[in-house]
Batch of 4 targets.
Target 1
Amino acid sequence: MMEERFFDYENYIQKRLKEIDDLDERKYAKELLLSSLGEVFAWTEEKYKALEQRIKDELDNPWKNFNVYMTVIERENYDPINNFWYPVCEEDLKNNEKGQEYETIYLKTDNAGCREFLSQGTIVGIDEKTGQNISFQIRKSMRYEERMKTLYGVFVSNHISWQTVHMGHLERFFDLIPMEEISTDSKITFQWGSWEKYVGQNQIPLWNIQKIMVQSQEFRRPCLDEVIYEHIYYLGNERTEEDGYLVEVDENIISIRYEKNKVLLKTEKESLENVFIYRLHQGNRGNSYGYQYPVLSNDRKDNLAVRYLQQTGNFIQTPMELHRKIEELSGNYHITLLEYEITDHIEGNPIEGDMNGYIGTQVFEKDKRNILLFKFRKEEMAKEDYWYEAQIRYILSQLQMEFLEYRCIGVMV
């Protein structure tokens, strides 16, 4: 592969001029090469950069406006004036509004630890008022998965290609359900045991999606050829080109058209209710106190090859192409693919790409597909960096959507 290197022609010319002993000739050569030829070099480089940028603009990345970012904060540190981060579930901000769960915790450990904690089944808490021992059932927080199902449906209805959302934070939230009646003002002290250093209480997940309820601000306009109505919704002056917008509506949408500061919906309904706009913020993440957890996202490393392949749709699945895809999806982690093979059995501890399980596309009855086995180098990570395996599972989840003829499985060696 050819590697393009920057050529510093000005320093090169200066260096070679020192080889001319005659000062008059050196002066003349300097004027000729730097003043005349130097301007030609500068003009050529400028034109090449403009051409490269034009090609990048024409090969636009279709999902660059729809990246989903997630992080975790302490509930008390939530900053309502931060224009990038919003709670995944609004009810997380309200301590007194609980469903069946008494409390939701965040478990700061790897995937094996999460499975072990869940398999434990229950945790014991002591009512400080009565001294009574109360058992709490441990369940995964399904409300976040429901939010992801809703988001997936919005992507589909807006005809935007779905890219796997990184679930590394959300899958570490667990609900504690009391197995007997407790009073609403009870204060429970949990007996965490060996889990105490891993448990995070009063923590909530945030993402970059703002949900806005809108109303049509212009009189509906019927189309002339069919009984179809066009509804106009304004997005506001604060709209930026880098942000993505999705429309959620109860009725079937025939088409969606975006203009400078508004969105136009065509439906067969004369009037629409409960229309929501999802704004996916992509710019500055702000700087709020307590926002210190790592950000996990499905943002991809951008390069010209990625844009070209996405535009043409010709994906040649070569070893080099698979390495490029994994590098593209690896985020801030250094993930090395050692090799891959097509097989019908697995050795070692398999890692599955299951972050899209809620959309139902990966379910096959009596699945007999061959396995596309990826072997990753096991890196030495810090103990507190428990998202490394989750990053590999995210990569496998996205690859699984592109290789439906195989089961994408990974192992670390």
Note: Residues 169 and 228 are 43 Å apart (CA to CA).
Target 2
Amino acid sequence: MAKVCHSCGKKPGFGNSRSHSMVATRRRFEPNLQKVRIQEGGRSHRVYVCTRCLKSNKVTKAP
């Protein structure tokens, strides 16, 4: 599954997990994506959209 928002293109961020001894291991910060049906061009599609775009009404949900 592609972890990319359909509306804004938000992708996973990358960083380090730090243990108690400060050893760094790579990790991913996943965006909060939800699978929703959206209305686009008169048709409905099921896509992944981040919760920030859902909350700010950047996409219109299909009925």
Note: Residues 51-55 form the longest helix (5 residues).
Target 3
Amino acid sequence: MFRSARDFGTAVREKRKALGWTQTELAARSGTGERFIVELESGKPSASLKSR
């Protein structure tokens, strides 16, 4: 379990890098925008994980 949005964002970034993906590629593969990935990885607490 993650204690904060920052911890979750760090985990996402580490996994993305381990896969050799760019933020742009992760955004495309996940059906989101690159800005969302940037905010998610930076730990922005208002980055919503709800489906749209």
Note: The chain has a mean pLDDT of 91.
Target 4
Amino acid sequence: MRSIFAILLALPVAAQTFVVDANNGPGTNYTSLTAAAAAVPDGAVLLVRAGNYAGFAIAQKGLTVLADPGVGITGTIAIANTNPGQSCTLANLAWPGSGAPCVQLTGDQGLVVLEGLTTAGFPAGGFLGFNYVPLDATGCARLAVRECTFWGHVNLDACDAVFESCTLQGVTNASAFTMLTTSSGLQAQGGNVQLVESTVTGGDGFGTGPIASVAASPGIGVYNGTARVLASTLVGGFDGGGQRAALQGNSIVRIDLLSSPQGGISNFPHSPSFLAMPFVSATSAAPGGNLTATTTTLAGDLVTLVVGLPGAPVPIAGFQDQFWLDPGAHVFLAIGVQQTTAPIAGSIAVPNVPGFRGLPLVWHAACFGPVTGLQNGNPAVALVR
């Protein structure tokens, strides 16, 4: 079986790599992320050493930003107007102070990967305004958010997005002296959003009586689009009137049997469907390591596990959910019958080639069974980092 890396090694072009170090240590190419992002060519990789950096903009080009531990960002990182062949990645960045927004995405048609990002939590006993937006995305064709912890109001508008192993906590209000609005952990208007092994919590309000002086918010709000919830926990915020809904909106929503909506579901003209659905969990790795993925579906299902380069979402007859794979650059890695104690899994060794750093790969699992039917799991994006 041909490895996906055998395909990649045959390609003649490798990404150019630059070192960004605020302390100007040995081998530094730039001391400022702002300057580096503006100057480096399309498709470049920035290796960022520990230090504090201002926000920056990426416009109409692909760029990968891989940070060492201890990289702090002040201000907004804006990624705008990439074309379908341009991929952007932000990995292992932290915003130790408040800011709105931390990451802003506008009109990106290429894949955007956010992995290991963290934003500051709320002040102890305090509050933050509704405009505390760790992630604000509009018109993104493919957005993969992995292993991120966001405090504030994540806002999506007309995006196709998947959140894997994330924690999203909505804006809370714990003060008797302000009337600031709380928020859901995630709000999506239009588009399609998938939650995989994630926890999304609405902000708590303020009030001790049956009517809250500041109302709490639902865990997530989804409007005029579609959503899929896989092995995730949705929690409505609390106020003097009790717990708010875990899920609110008017989208078409599917929830798997492993998910837990806490606080009920409200204001849906279409009742959400509760059904068995497969999902994929993937891990990133450094050059010389192993990328892995594991399926979760009903025992007895026939599973085909696929990995490849990212591509535009592709519909395939018989599947409700699209595949994020390049039609010409993917391989079938494993096929078999799902077992309770031995799920279908796959692993690929990453060549110890530094030029592969920053490469995103997409895993999918196509499953078939008497209860599951014919279904595609979520796109699970893993990085060579």
Note: The chain has two domains: 13-274, 279-383.
